[in-house]
Amino acid sequence: MNPIVRYWSPLLIWMALICVGSTDLLSAEHTSRLLGPLLHWFYPRISPLTVLRLQILIRKAGHVTEYAILALLMFRALANTLFWRSAIGAMALTLIAAGAFAATDEFHQSFVPSRTASLRDVSIDTLGAGVGIAIYAVWWRRYRQRALPRSFSTNSGPERI
Predict the structure, then answer these.
(1) What is the pLDDT of residue 28?
(2) 123 touches 60 (CB < 8 A)
């Protein structure tokens, strides 16, 4: 399969899903219709204030999660096509691009009557992208440690021969 299609298609699909989620479809009004009754079903004596706080927390956790996934997909695409020799460059560009996408997404929401644009959400989204990059970095470090035989060190290679 073509590397461009293999690595960039999932990213573009995820970005499209984020844009769809920024419409009225996933506005606070619509998600609260689902979350409120669900919380009452789990905890029948829950107070309205607690329901409101939990709805806000769940929605913000959704921002972090969706942008962590975006960052993972974006880093994967960049690292495997443009920055295959520089993971740090791919990580930096991922964080910048995810933050820019978050800003444009919030700008898009400013035109949707049931949504509001928020710099706080841009910050939360960018934080989510940072979380995604950190998760990848931790995973990669552990993967490399397991993949290298114990007889090799980080200094092994042609320069030691």
Answers:
(1) 66
(2) no
